[in-house]
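dumping these here so i dont lose them again. two proteins, back to back, each one seq then structure tokens. dont judge the mess
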Amino acid sequence: MTLLSPVDAALEGLRIMRRHPVVVLAWAGFSLVTLPLLGLLVKMVLGEQDRADLALRSSSADPREILDIVSRLGGVMVLLIMLALVLGAILSAAIMRAVLHPEQRRWAYLRVGREDLRLLVVSLIHWAATLMVMVIPGGVVALGTALLGGTPVAGWFGFLGALTVIGLSTWVAVRLSLLAPHAFMVGHIDPRAAWLLTHGQFWRLLAMLVIVIVLCVIVSILGATVSSIVGAVLAGGLEDPIAGGPAASHPRLILALLANLLLAPVFLTLQAVIVTSAPAAALRQLTAGEA
């Protein structure tokens, strides 16, 4: 049985950035165009009041409020989510193509076709799995803890229930981690075959995912730091040190926001490269001996 190297797989995204910096910049440009357009579409479609309702009720524990907002915005939210998933599938397919078929470099590995559609379906499978093993059980645990509130067993029920949900969701996430690259590589979606590929590799795949999460956190911190520094540097020469007051801070605020708007998609793309490349590299390792 081929043994997976978690570190080698997790670092595949960094190798892609080193080998193909121009390609990664093209992916960042794709995100730089599509993400603001998606955000603008959200503002146009939902409207100010709907966005305010979402902000107020997104953390609500009352199922009636959540059902109310979903019933009012359900169709619109589904459309926006599907559009986001399509854009994500296109970028994910390009990244997997760079890992599994590096010779197909034309158009920075970006295509629109059946591979993207398969990855879109895989995204929906992941969403369904998340709903079944995390969202619904988590809601049951939260409801049970609330009903048992004030009793001696409430705390234990919530603690053990949370551990169960975390353990179950982690196990399913690891066992399904190769589904997307497997569907990309073989040309059809086969959850059973992708699941069997993870047999005997659970802890190695889990270690890979932990390393990927750590790398993404580092990129997030780096992105926030760079955005702050760039915003401050760009605004430094425009601020009037004598005038002071609110008006003097406007150029700094505007340029800081612009820097964040331009840099955020870039660092999100770097995170996407890390997250998507790792399971693709893991699959490449596990199937290296196959004809």
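---- next one ----
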Amino acid sequence: MSEHIIEAMGLSKVTIKNGKVVDVTEPEIEYCPLFDHNRSIKKLTSKTIAENIQFRIDDFGMCMPNRQLKMKDFLNFGISEIMCTLLEENVIDSVIMVLEGCGTLIVNEPELVQGIGGRVSGLVKTSPIPELITKMGEDNIVYPETAEINQIKGVELAIKKGFKNIAVTIALASEIDEIERIKSENPDVNIYVFVVHTTKRTAEEARKLFDGCDVITSCASKYVREIGQKESVKTVGQSIPIYASSEAGKKFLEMRLEKIGGEKPKKDNPDLPYPLL
């Protein structure tokens, strides 16, 4: 049986089995501006979340063998869009990310980065989907037999395959020390850290993630926002700010801005997630 667990909209945990949403926990976030502006969802509930996730399954095959993997770049600003631009400009040569049915894998095509990362976030657990594993290539997947998610092993696999400028998405503060270890053991390799899914990280976790990354998205994180507002070397966005924590990260944000023609005008009272956790 194909089973996938996503910690998605509003920190609701969604379980999908064989293409159907079978369980949705009540969200901890009531309002997300992204889902309001893009899907007109004014309040996150288990019902609205179940409907949205089922829409994704039916629309582009999320968690299904017919999953649409590629997507054209849109004029918006998110982690996948930034990495897409970096691949196009040959700043990086690979991205370590997560795909339903595959787990952690190496991607080096911009449209794949956008199609995978731009459509699904917060994948907690997944199980193998043979059709997707074949499409992505077993040698690009860390654990094709189990579809385990392990970003550290993904970075190590990319280095083993000869990649020298690697971007990796992470969500856990515990991964920072391991990435630092890999960096010290491979001084000829550049590893750029992009932090995603930061809602409800503790103050200590937020501190560690911010200090160890290049780019971090705020999501509905109270502590990431507090740190980012004071210490970010470059910030893009108001409702869901994205912060650069390093000079490399600043360069990445500026490259993306140049690609899309600059920032949108600032709003006096931007919509914010509620509550911030």
